């Protein structure tokens, strides 16, 4: 009986040791592990991206807190954007730390406009009878943004070529 128990204990300890040596934490060391790519994809999508988005949200909350603390007329989101710009410019936060979260949000940007667009519907009375004016404003602002983006791009390309 003691021999059987000892064998079982040894077998279990070997299996536990094997499981721990090939655990999730050591997946990066394995060369031919079939689920390695799937785990990397899961890690990127389910762990890293939400953490990076949470970091961006904390920066936004810091901006909102500064706005409320000093009673500023500048929106907290703009202050948060300035904080993020400062952190990235001074290299206090490296770009790669936020890269995947930002890419995810930019890829899904149209979904963030849906609540704002639906919210405008509740103020439809403000826009009644001003359809032509809204079209002119929309076309003008689109042309202005396109022209400014083109100029900035040309300036950046010219500056890079000179360097």
From TrEMBL:
The chain crosses the membrane at residues 46-63, 69-88, 109-126, 132-150. Its main location: membrane. One of its GO terms (cellular component) is plasma membrane. InterPro entries: LrgA/CidA. Keywords: Cell membrane, Membrane, Transmembrane, Transmembrane helix. It is found in: Cell membrane. It is a multi-pass membrane protein. The keyword Transcription does not apply. It holds the Pfam family LrgA. PANTHER family: HOLIN-LIKE PROTEIN CIDA, HOLIN-LIKE PROTEIN CIDA-RELATED. This is Holin-like protein. It comes from Halobacillus halophilus (strain ATCC 35676 / DSM 2266 / JCM 20832 / KCTC 3685 / LMG 17431 / NBRC 102448 / NCIMB 2269).
């Amino acid at each position: 009986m003691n021999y059987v128990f000892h064998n079982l204990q040894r077998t279990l300890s070997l299996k536990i040791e094997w499981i721990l040596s090939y655990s999730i934490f050591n997946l990066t060391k394995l060369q031919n592990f079939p689920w390695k790519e799937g785990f990397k994809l899961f890690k990127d999508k389910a762990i890293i991206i939400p953490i990076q988005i949470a970091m961006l949200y904390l920066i936004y909350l810091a901006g909102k807190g500064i706005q409320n603390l000093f009673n500023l007329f500048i929106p907290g989101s703009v202050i948060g954007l300035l904080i993020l710009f400062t952190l990235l410019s001074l290299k206090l936060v490296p770009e790669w730390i936020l890269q995947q979260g930002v890419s995810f949000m930019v890829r899904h940007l149209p979904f963030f406009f849906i609540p704002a667009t639906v919210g405008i519907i509740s103020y439809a009375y403000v826009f009644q009878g001003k359809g032509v004016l809204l079209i002119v404003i929309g076309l003008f602002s689109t042309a202005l943004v396109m022209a400014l983006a083109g100029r900035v791009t040309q300036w950046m390309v010219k500056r890079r070529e000179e360097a």
